[in-house]
Amino acid sequence: MNEPLEGGCLCARIRYRIEGAPRWVGHCHCSMCRRAAGAPYVTWISVKSENFRWTRGEPKVHASSAKATRLFCPDCGSQLAFRFNDKPHLYDITAGTLDDPARVTPKENIYWDTRIPAHITANDLPERRIEG
Ligand SMILES: [Zn+2]
Ligand SMILES: [Zn+2]
To answer: 29: CA distance to ligand 2 center in Å?
Structure first.
């Protein structure tokens, strides 16, 4: 992947750029992602911090649990990123905020057992269980 992946929030106050290939792309069906995004599930792109930067504006940081923060636009509310407190070398970015989300391909489901069956009946991706 040569061209950077770029994206931003709904109101365009916050913009970002990802260089290089994502290290992981997948759908998270956990209840916290569902609430944070107001969507049945969230597709995440995991990238190394060294390959990620905000190019316009600064997101607001919400401590969504004791272990992690979620970053969102303070004006329009778009959820943009997720970070584990103990993994500062990583950023997880919401694929839905990419300018061209079709450029990334999800590989796995996580928290599949808490999906909403009426919304997500099936897909062809394997499931990966997350401990803790
Ligand atoms: Zn915004
Ligand atoms: Zn989740």
So the answer is: 6
> For residue range 46-67, what is the model confidence (pLDDT) as tens digits?
999 999 999 999 999 999 999 9
Burial 76-104 (b: 16+ CB within 10 A, else e): eebbbbbbeeeeeebbbbbbebbeeeeeb
**What is the pTM assigned to this prediction?**
0.91
What is the whole-number distance in angstroms between the Cα of residue 64 and the centre of ligand 1? 19
Cα 72 to middle of ligand 1, angstroms:
8
Alpha helix (H) ranges present in the chain? 31-37
Topology of domain 5-116, CATH:
2.170.150
